Backbone:
């Protein structure tokens, strides 16, 4: 979907090595809804999949209060050339243990791997990207239109697994019910060429819902998307990516 070499990138690749920092003492994933009560919903064919109630409202609330204690940094207003304008506060850490927990100690692994869907996921899914990103958007903050890149990663183990990311994972911890207004993630279906008489397709808007997990295809077939401006309250998101064997 993404026209090649056109448009901004997310600017979140591990291009600039981060100094090693102590991994946070992440709280346990409890309470959770039983796996049997959860399902993947393909809300936009081949592009966007959601899991409503992936985390409970209580777990989201506990996480927001825990994450508030982390040293978040405000992203520079002026992005590097080619990167999207992204105004939010974030915390980024390479934490393979947390990524593995988020994968295996929740319904994610079962839901994603129970049906062999190599075509959908872009290969054999082996886990989540250890590069964990926490975003906090306060009033006035947003993430401008961009495409998410696919990256090569190595999942630790004996032996390590060589993998590449194929889908973005966004786990929303806040919503209008928690006082966060705005901040929807909006996807823009492929815009036809200017001269075409076809109408421009409507954007696909994902409203914030605390505990909703959203997966969207990235890399060469990523849809143009943005995080709309937050107009009140705070939007909190946990970001990782699905990884397939390479
Ligand atoms: O915060 C959002 O709604 C979008 C985040 C995003 O697009 C990204 O992490 O690449
Ligand atoms: Fe993105």
Residues:
């Amino acid at each position: 979907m993404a026209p090649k070499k056109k448009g901004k990138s997310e600017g979140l690749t591990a291009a600039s090595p981060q100094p090693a920092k102590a991994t946070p003492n992440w709280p346990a994933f409890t309470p959770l809804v039983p796996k049997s009560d959860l399902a993947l919903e393909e809300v936009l064919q081949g592009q966007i999949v959601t899991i409503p109630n992936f985390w409970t409202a209580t777990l989201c609330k506990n996480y927001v209060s825990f994450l508030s204690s982390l040293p978040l940094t405000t992203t520079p207003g002026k992005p590097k050339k080619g990167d999207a304008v992204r105004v939010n506060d974030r915390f980024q850490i390479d934490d393979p243990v947390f990524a593995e927990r988020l994968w295996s100690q929740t319904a994610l692994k079962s839901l994603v791997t129970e049906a062999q869907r190599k075509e959908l996921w872009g290969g054999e899914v082996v886990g989540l990207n250890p590069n964990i990103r926490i975003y906090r958007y306060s009033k006035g903050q947003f993430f401008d239109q961009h495409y998410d890149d696919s990256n090569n990663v190595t999942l630790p183990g004996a032996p390590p697994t060589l993998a590449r990311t194929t889908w973005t994972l966004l786990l929303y911890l806040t919503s209008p019910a928690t006082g966060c207004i705005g901040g929807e993630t909006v996807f823009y279906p492929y815009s036809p060429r200017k001269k075409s008489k076809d109408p421009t397709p409507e954007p696909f808007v994902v409203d914030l819902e605390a505990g909703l997990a959203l997966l969207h295809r990235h890399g060469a077939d990523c849809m143009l998307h943005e995080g709309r401006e937050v107009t009140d309250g705070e939007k909190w998101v946990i970001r990782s990516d699905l990884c397939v064997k390479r």
Residues 10, 135, 143, 148, 168, 170, 185, 225, 227, 237, 239 surround 2-oxoglutaric acid (ligand 1) (CB under 6 Å). The helical segments are 57-67, 96-104, 108-113, 118-121. Residues 46-69+88-185+201-245 form a domain with the Jelly Rolls fold (CATH 2.60.120.620). The chain has four helices and 17 strands.
